[in-house]
Please model this.
Amino acid sequence: MNLMEEIPISAINAYLYCPMRFYIEYLQGQFFSNEHVAEGRYLGETTGKISQTKNWKKRPQLYVFSDRLRVSDIIDEVILSGGSVQIIEKKKGVAQKPFKNDILQLVAYMVCYAESFGTALSKIRGVLIYLGSQKKITVKPSRELVAELEKTIEAMRRVFENPPQPLYDEK
Model:
């Protein structure tokens, strides 16, 4: 029995961080906000405004979906320029190199954008921005990353039937 028809893209990040966290938050519905979540949401909501020039358009808070992967969510920001698309994902923290969960979340946004708007995936680039360090990292949606995303989503769906067991420290 499939309990969740459509998975929020943000759940990919939670699953890769900790499958038990994904299970508790997304399948049991026990999500508790904290100051980090609240600050991240606030920064995402206050930094984006619709704007454009003759060379580019910026669209914040854009809903995207994939019928094929059965995932959807809201992108922080999309910048359209000369036939190319940049998907911007902002993270509150500090990082010198991107975390795998952030990369696959961004790849999911790119795949969903391509499907939602009929854009070739090759025309899309992702940018992770770690607000704490102002580090910007460009991500290209390679075949390898898309395949890894697909395997991750399959593994997430298996959690519906076989929940992870908590790990206990002997200390």
In short: The mean pLDDT is 87.
